[in-house]
Specification:
Layout: H1 3-11, E1 16-22, E2 34-40, H2 44-57, E3 60-64, E4 70-72, E5 77-83, E6 91-92, E7 101-105, H3 110-119, E8 122-123, H4 135-141, E9 144-145, E10 148-149, E11 154-161, E12 166-170, E13 186-194, E14 196-197, H5 200-217, H6 243-249, E15 256-257, E16 260-262, E17 270-272, H7 278-296, E18 305-307
Parallel strand pairs: 2-5, 3-5, 4-18
Antiparallel strand pairs: 1-2, 6-7, 7-13, 8-14, 9-10, 11-12, 11-13, 15-16, 16-17
The structure holds flavin-adenine dinucleotide.
Flavin-adenine dinucleotide (FAD) binds at residues 28, 62-70, 84, 106, 131-134, 136-138, 140-141, 143-145, 179, 187-188, 220, 224-226, 305.
């Protein structure tokens, strides 16, 4: 994009716009080269304006939340990154006078929403307390944990289409699947969730249990993206094995290329041990996929979104 085009983009946005900004700092992997333009929308109109600009100029664009499920290429992203966070993170309790319905901005952190709803005695999202993304990213990915996911509670989603049209979709209109919403080329700007009354003390107890499990069994506070691979479907004639179990059984825990390593704690996590590049992580991914394919005839699919 030319300097003139970038200036024009900035003039249409009320939030901040940064140019040639390294994306590593906006991902939990701490990996990724620069974006031509990084837009921090403070309103839905900013999202609309950024998308209209992208459509007019034929620029690529990408929605980004907390960057906890992405691996961004070392060369970066030659387009407009729309990073949803503050400004689009309002939490409105009791939407439409119903205490069990909350309307939430896409930029709100999922762990915060999990805690706030649990403290208010509402079940449905509390088990996602350790899923470190935004509500927008959570809806887009149909993020979930311990038997709960966004598809189960999302009543409506506020979206901006790629051409800048704002609209609302009912949860029932979304093609939910395992770790997928099928929403495609759209930006989620908010969601309404329907929760269920429960004893806040019991919810707090569950939250503590889930945290203990995460601390003990996953590298939850290291530089990573959560599960790298989707769990494969169970074979017709056998027992389901998770991606982590398959990788672990091949003795790949600890396997590394450069600064990227299959976590010694959980085989479905590939961690950045300090100075990993996206190429290092992709090399580990390729080697793991090749070994799992050769040994079990299973083609592991990526859960992490690789942005190139
Ligand atoms: C330690 C750790 C543990 C994790 N555990 C879990 C887990 O238990 N369960 C689970 O499901 N996930 C888990 N994850 C993955 C990740 O936290 C979730 O997928 C999360 O919902 C991603 O949200 P995000 O805001 O970070 O999205 P990003 O990583 O920023 O984006 C992910 C994808 O969503 C798109 N996207 C983001 N925001 C929007 C938006 N507003 N509109 C449209 N598209 C958007 C992006 O373009 C990208 O394709 C874990 C990650 C880490 C680092």
């Amino acid at each position: 994009m030319t300097t003139t085009a970038l200036r024009e983009l900035a003039s249409r946005i009320t939030g901040e716009v940064r140019f040639d900004e390294p994306l590593a700092g906006y991902t939990t992997y701490r990996i990724g080269g620069p974006a031509a333009a990084l837009v921090f929308p403070s309103t839905t109109d900013d999202v609309v304006n950024a998308l209209e600009f992208a459509a007019e100029t034929g620029s690529r664009w990408l929605a980004l939340g907390l960057g906890s499920n992405v691996l961004i290429a070392d060369r970066g992203f030659d387009g407009i990154v729309i990073r949803l966070g503050r400004g689009l993170d309002a939490v409105q309790r009791g939407a439409g006078g119903d205490e069990t319905r909350w309307t939430v901005g896409a930029g709100a952190p999922t762990p915060l929403l999990a805690r706030q709803t649990a403290a208010a005695g509402l079940a449905g999202l509390h088990r996602l307390v350790g899923v470190p993304g935004t509500v927008g990213g959570g809806v887009f990915m149909n993020a979930g944990a311990h038997g709960q996911d966004f598809s189960q509670v999302t009543q409506a989603v506020e979206l901006v289409d790629g051409d800048g049209t704002v609209r609302s979709l009912a949860g029932s209109e979304i093609r939910w699947a395992y770790r997928s919403s099928g929403l495609g080329e759209r930006v989620v700007v908010g969601a309404t969730v329907q929760l269920t009354p429960a004893d806040p003390k019991e919810l707090e107890k569950e939250i503590k249990q889930h945290f203990r499990w995460r601390k003990a069994g996953t590298p939850f506070n290291e530089r990573c993206c959560g599960s790298v691979f989707r769990n494969p479907p169970a074979p017709d004639d056998g027992e389901a094995r998770s991606a982590g179990q398959l990788i672990d059984a091949l003795g790949l825990k600890g396997h590394r290329v450069g600064g990227a390593q299959v976590s010694p704690k959980h085989a479905n996590y590939i961690v950045n041990t300090g100075h990993a590049t996206a190429s290092d992580v992709l090399a580990v991914i390729g080697q793991v996929q090749a070994k799992v394919s050769a040994e079990y005839g299973i083609e592991l699919e990526l859960e992490v979104k690789v942005i190139e």
